[in-house]
Design brief:
Mean pLDDT: 89
Number of helices: 6
Low-confidence stretches: none
Helix content: 55-70%
Shape: globular
Strand content: under 5%
Distance between the termini: 40 Å
Oligomer: single chain
Radius of gyration: 15 Å
Order of helices and strands: HHHHHH
Structural class: mainly alpha
Length: 127
């Protein structure tokens, strides 16, 4: 389980880096390029998470106890979904959608998630 937690932390970090490279890159401000990124590169990466979540039988990403991997995976998926102006990702990646909805409903986190401000940019402005 520890190895799975570490793997998921690293996978979510890689996805976050991909997100940041796009956002800070020359096309990060373009709506057309954002849509293309969501439909291609981002979707390719999210498919791996969706497949993993579809195959798990536990409540959380690794086992039935929440781990740091859940927080990292949720955060990363959440910010990636912010790029989806057309709302195609929840329809395309149903397992991710269910996981994120379940995570948002955890009593210990629900209020915080509902009241936290989520809007672009989620990273610092580029210099």
């Amino acid at each position: 389980e520890e190895a799975q937690v570490m793997m998921l932390c690293e996978e979510s970090y890689d996805l976050h880096v991909q997100f940041a490279i796009f956002c800070y890159g020359p096309n990060g401000g373009s709506d057309t390029e954002r849509k293309r990124f969501v439909e291609t590169s981002l979707s390719d990466s999210l498919k791996r998470f969706d497949d993993y979540l579809g195959n798990k039988t536990s409540k959380f990403v690794v086992g039935n106890q929440i781990t740091i991997a859940d927080f990292q995976v949720f955060h990363c998926l959440d910010i990636c979904f912010l790029l989806d102006d057309d709302n195609i990702l929840p329809k395309k990646f149903v397992n991710i959608k269910h996981y994120m909805n379940d995570f948002r409903q955890l009593p210990e986190l629900k209020t915080y998630i509902e009241t936290s401000e989520k809007k672009l940019p989620v990273n610092s402005p580029s210099m």
